[in-house]
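Ticket #4471: structure output looks truncated?

Reporter: J.K.
Steps to reproduce: submitted the chain below (126 residues) through the standard prediction queue, then opened the result file.
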Amino acid sequence: MGLRGVRILVIEDAQDIREVFTLLLRAEGADVASAANRRDATDLFAAQRFDVVLSDLGLPDIPGDVLIRELRARSARATRVVVVTGYGEPFLARARQAGADVVFTKPVEWSRILEYLEHPDFAASA
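Returned output as attached by the reporter:
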């Protein structure tokens, strides 16, 4: 099915992981922007419409669940929030409570993330 036309914001402070996610998503046809911290993420989110936010929880300047709440409050439409993190509980529960649609723990196979993004219910709302 692919991700053609899907706009995704990747929020990840680790440059190598951020670049890999960006390359993989673009290879699937997504339009991708990326940010390494809260300031850049919120600036991009305010300036553009995104269908999906793919975020880490361990950011240098804000807890991931706080950022999720902030982005959810700013979103005029239903933006999917996908979390990919190396953290365990209670951080996973806090991410879900903040509004994450799905949480993947590292290491995660790329195919699992892609399968979620390509799910028919997601495609219908994108």
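Triage note (M.O.): checked the attachment and the full token line is present. The chain is about 45% helix and 20% strand.
Status: closed, working as intended.
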